[in-house]
Design brief:
By secondary structure, this protein is an all-alpha fold. The protein has four helices and no strands. Helix 3 runs antiparallel to helix 4. The chain is elongated, with a radius of gyration of 31 Å. The two termini are 57 Å apart.
Length: 125
């Protein structure tokens, strides 16, 4: 038989609460203290380096538009091929279902990549 433990004892919760208050109060006071001059200069240097690194890694808008265009052209071609294969099946009775599904899958995959890239680059989060 397992020993029963009563987790609803008030003394247990009171002890845990006091323990948390005693050991977290010094850390809260340390975080509220104003930073010294050296640490402010150090943080300014880090933020300045971070902004310089971001500026050097960011693609220019023109290059982003070119990449989106280069993704959009094959996407449009794949969609036209998929549509033509669908029409060939429906209207002319050709047996191209597997080829139609392959081009449809490629179209959907490229469309998803195009959408995700556009959202990440151009949607203001």
């Amino acid at each position: 038989m397992m020993p029963s433990t009563n987790l609803f004892r008030p003394s247990l919760w009171l002890g845990l609460t006091l323990w948390l208050l005693i050991f977290t109060a010094p850390s809260v006071q340390a975080a509220d203290s104003p930073p010294s001059g050296d640490s402010v200069q150090m943080m300014e240097a880090f933020s300045r380096d971070a902004t310089q690194a971001e500026d050097s890694n960011v693609l220019k808008d023109h290059k982003k538009h070119v990449i989106m265009f280069l993704m959009g052209v094959p996407l449009l071609i794949l969609i036209l091929i998929t549509g033509a294969l669908g029409i060939a099946m429906a209207v002319f009775g050709k047996q191209v279902f597997m080829l139609h599904m392959i081009f449809a899958g490629l179209s959907v995959t490229l469309a998803l990549a195009h959408v995700v890239t556009g959202l990440v680059w151009f949607y203001p989060f």
